[in-house]
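# nightly structure sweep
# worker-07 picked up a monomer target from the shared queue
# config: single-sequence mode, recycle default, output format = structure tokens
# input follows
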Amino acid sequence: MLLDAVFGEPRWLWDRAPHPAVLMGRLIAWCDNRFNQGGQLRVKGFVLVIVLLVIATVIGTLIAAVPGYFLDVIIGAILLAQRSLVDHVRAVSNGLRLSLADGKRSVAMIVGRDTSEMDQTDVARAAIESAVENLSDGVTAPVFWFAVLGLPGLLIYKIINTADSMIGYLTPRHAEFGFAAAKLDDILNFIPARITALIIWVFYPRTAFSTIRSAAGLHRSPNAGWPEAATAYALNLALSGPRRYHGKLSDDPFVNPQGRKKLRPSDVDDVTRLLWLSWFVLLAFAILAGIAGQII
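# output follows
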């Protein structure tokens, strides 16, 4: 966690060598192009998930068997995304301060929704929602599974999360083939999403946690709604709500509809501070867990 926070994603390295997540993505893309056709697509997608689990488990176990913890630490740092997440989110607030076009270009790097018709509020909301969702997916969940199952657990989580981000959509092409990846990703993120929401709520207990639980249920995702709801009430903002995907306007309800709906760059800055506060809590727990493990 400390290495990732300090160095992030060094360009000099990843301009010369493929990032492990890129390699995972290439494998999944090849399987998508090769097997996502014909019949029995849900079965084929299930088999793909099994194969990915086996590959991640074998590679993780072999690397973990190397004496010492050097490789585990380096790979763990590479597969965490705190620093890069903060940098991307901060780029949105900085871009918005220059112009709406700059803000839209920056937010397009981290969201999949249409940006062409976004105003300042839409850009800021998209950045905030992506920030807290990726706090859970890119930081809390990897730390959690690394702590629970070691390097194999971290690799399993990352490859399934990558698969979900590529094929786990309810589109005509991927609704069946990506079904297993999407469901397993929901399972793997179940606990981390709620841990993330709890951490945010502890810093900003401005409503009952039961309210956050209820608001999370309004979200289209069974997990992303938790950190989004916690953030909405923490910063008194109305999040989620209608947005455009692939040219179509969704009718998603607002989370915390009584919160402020007109968002500004400073709200994005607030969420970057929230990202670091949450990271610090996770780091503290990691240190305490390590000390407890040595004592036991």
